[in-house]
Specification:
Blueprint: H1 2-41, H2 51-54, H3 63-71, H4 76-85, H5 98-114, H6 128-135, H7 142-157, H8 160-169, H9 176-180, H10 185-201, H11 205-216, H12 222-229, H13 232-238, H14 240-253, H15 271-280, H16 293-326, H17 351-367, H18 373-378, H19 381-393, H20 395-417
Protein name: GPI mannosyltransferase 2
Membrane topology: Multi-pass membrane protein
Pathway: Glycolipid biosynthesis; glycosylphosphatidylinositol-anchor biosynthesis
Amino acid sequence: MSTGSSQTSSAAPSASHGHIRLLVILSCCATLLTIFLTTLSSQLPLFDSSPHILLPPTPNFSIRRALASASLRWDVFYFAPIAKDGYVYEQQWAFFPGVPCVMQTWAVFMNAVQHLGHGQRENASLEWEDILLGGLTSSLLSLPSVLVLYDLTLTHFGSPSIAFLASLMSLLPSSPATLRMAGYSEPFFTFLSYTGMRFCAHRRWFLAACCFAAATTFRSNGIHVGRALYALALSSFAVSFFVYYQYQAYRLFCEGTATPAPWCSAFPPSIYTYVQGKYWNVGFLRYWTLQQLPNFLLGAPPLLLLLTFATHYVRLALVPRLVAFVRGRAPTRRSPDDHTTRLPFLSPTIAPHVIHALVLCFVLIFASHTQIVLRFAAAMPLTYWAAAWLVVERPGWARWWIGWSVLWGAISCVLWGVFLPPA
């Protein structure tokens, strides 16, 4: 018996090492393929010629120019000017400063390198090309995010096979261009939030709070992640940047001005909420119009996956525990490795992820631009745990999901390249 158990225990690390080596290769290939397909598509006639305003076409082909031009889509039109000139217009406050800071840092570095030995020019203006290429550094986070997801899954489920399967599913995200190439918030947010979740799983609360606070500099729903995962004091630290960001806007638009902005008298005064509603029509049921039906259909696959798995988990894992608690009985005891064998996807430790996914799905359906679930789901570990659950327990549906992921992933890269929605 001891020989068999020792062989099993030694096999697990060996399997993990093999999984990681393969994930490194596949993740790098997926990132390069995304960049290649998106950049190649950007050479086609554009639906919207706005990128040519910042980067006019040149007679000679340049890889740098092609990469920078391919990344200049949608939200990057806000991030790049913020990186160059700071927050100038009210609507820019809907975008957090994490990505512009990365872009600006890279552009300043490249400017210094280009003028090394020639003396730094005073008040040298940052080049648009360097700013946009700074956003492309986000692609360097693709591999670390996959490896952190593997470790996070292994911690929750205790199974190298499930960790490997979920990580493989993450190579087929619902928004590959924004997750692996573009200067968007998703790559940074994904890496930081995954790392924070891993620290939570290992009960390293302060480091988790630091990661979530950093994630909030890139995207506001880092706040929801923080609240769902640990106690109030550390959650307050995680949301501290968001509060400071709102305070800076309050000082600019509300204090010492003859005509304060309309949102200044609201409680709480939030420029983020105001700008989202004014410029993007975000609000309860505002998106429920007939012309938005195609966007609901685009977001349906990841929404259905998340809601189906979350409902399954709530029904078979959360409800029985709540009933037992109400009746004053302890939950049914199982052996330590039961969740990795008989009930692998009902681990009690993933309950916060399920609750967070349910809340986020309902917000996206009823009070937001529903199709952005394509970007949000790509940054959520539960999406890939749910996909792995389909492979193990619903293989027929898993084939549909994988087929859709491959097909939509390729189509979305082409749509991004030619500047067609969804963003």
